[in-house]
Amino acid sequence: MQLDSPTTLDLFNASPSVPRDLLVWQHAIACLRAGIPVSLLLVVSSSGSSPGRQGFKMSVAPGSMVGSIGGGIMEHKFVELARHGLADGRREVLLREQVHRGEAPHNRSGMICSGQQTLLLLPLHEDHLPTLRFVADALQHHHPAWLRCTARGELQAAAGAPPRAPGLHRPADDAADAWQYVEMLGFRDQLTIVGGGHVGLALSQVVAHLDFRLTVLDDRSGLNTLQLNPYAHDKRTVDYGVLGQAIADGPHQYVVVMTFGYRTDGVALRQLLGRPFAYLGVMGSAAKITTMRRELRAEGYPEAQLARVHAPIGLPIHSRTPEEIAISVAAELIRVRNAPRG
């Protein structure tokens, strides 16, 4: 790679992605500072084939809007509802169920995708500005923080872990004025790419648009494709023999192994097998993966652990170049992340 090539220049001009919500909060702040009325639209719960999952949000002003709550006729309807409220000076907080089935007896959204959502419409005002600024700063600098909205129109945000589990909380008597919604700020999902080579760099570029917090690890010091990777929020040189200590597990942790070769893939994978990741995958040809699985079985690794490994990774689209492989892997990550939960 020549230092004056367009690809390299583009890499230097790029930067790690920020959570998609940041622009929503920045738009709301700019509107309030300019004296323009603005409301927040927020998906506080979702199930089934809903067009926008919990946490999707928009800021809506009379002549502008940023973000999305899922698109389609439902989004258009709520944008118009928000704008009519702003024009009339209405300040009430609305919590509305939306059912995406044409035969539903109540709360039909106008869509027929069969899911269901609960949407919040919150008119914002100057008293909210300190909280909005805190939220935008936390998102921009990737500080762990949380947000709370209440039926009375309160917005609260603070650093660290939230006082209760994220989600929509209703009282036992379902009192309309006593619900509250809690959300963790920033990236929900974390992707770790083990291997900072050409495919790792290409995958980083694709994933930068997919709302993952991205870490890239490699055991080679001075690797140019790792050093020049501008998309990762974190990039480090790590001995694959202690890789397990460098990667957290959990329901929002995704790991892709694509190291320099077969031996290092095996070292890395042995550090990760059996841990509760949302996704664990290994790049390689079908022949390579067959050999790897045979060796791991011979070493006594349980079949149940091996079955949880996505290998070869990526959707089968006959990809060959690093960029094509990156797209196939990103598509598989999306499929796993958005799969219905039982």
Number of helices: 10
Query: What gap, in angstroms, lies between the N and C termini?
Result: 46 Å
Give start-end ranges of low-pLDDT stretches: 1-13
Q: In percent, how much strand structure appears in the residues?
A: 15-25%
Q: What's the SSE pattern? A: HHEEEHEEHEEEEEHEHEEHEHHH
Could you tell me the number of beta strands? 14
What class do helices, strands and sheet pairing give?
alpha/beta
The averaged pLDDT comes out at 88
Strand order of the largest sheet: 3-2-1-5-4
Number of domains: 2
Rg on CA atoms, Å:
23 Å
| Biggest sheet statistics | 5 strands, antiparallel
Shape: elongated
Short description:
The protein has helices at about 5-15, 20-35, 70-90, 130-140, 200-205, 225, 260-270, 285-300, 305, 320-340; strands at about 40-45, 55-60, 65, 95-100, 115-125, 145-150, 155-160, 165-170, 180-185, 190-195, 210-220, 235, 250-255, 275-280.
Structure, explained:
Residues 31-94 form the XdhC- CoxI domain. InterPro entries: FAD/NAD-bd_sf (IPR036188), MoCofactor_Util/Proc (IPR052698), XdhC_CoxI (IPR003777), XdhC_Rossmann_dom (IPR027051). This is XdhC/CoxI family protein. Residues 191-333 form the XdhC Rossmann domain. The protein has 342 residues and is an alpha/beta fold. It folds into two domains: 21-184, no CATH class; 188-338, 3-Layer(aba) Sandwich (Rossmann fold). 32% of the residues lie in helices and 25% in strands. It has ten helices and 14 strands. It has helices at 6-13, 21-33, 72-88, 129-140, 198-207, 224-227, 262-272, 286-298, 303-307, 322-338, and strands spanning 38-47, 57-61, 64-67, 94-99, 116-124, 145-150, 155-159, 167-169, 180-184, 189-194, 212-218, 234-237, 250-257, 277-282. The strands form three sheets. The chain has a five-stranded antiparallel β-sheet. Strands 12-11-10-13-14 form a five-stranded parallel β-sheet, sandwiched between helices. Helix 2 packs antiparallel against helix 4 and helix 5 (198-207) crosses helix 10. 37% of the residues are buried. The model is unreliable at 1-13 (pLDDT under 50).
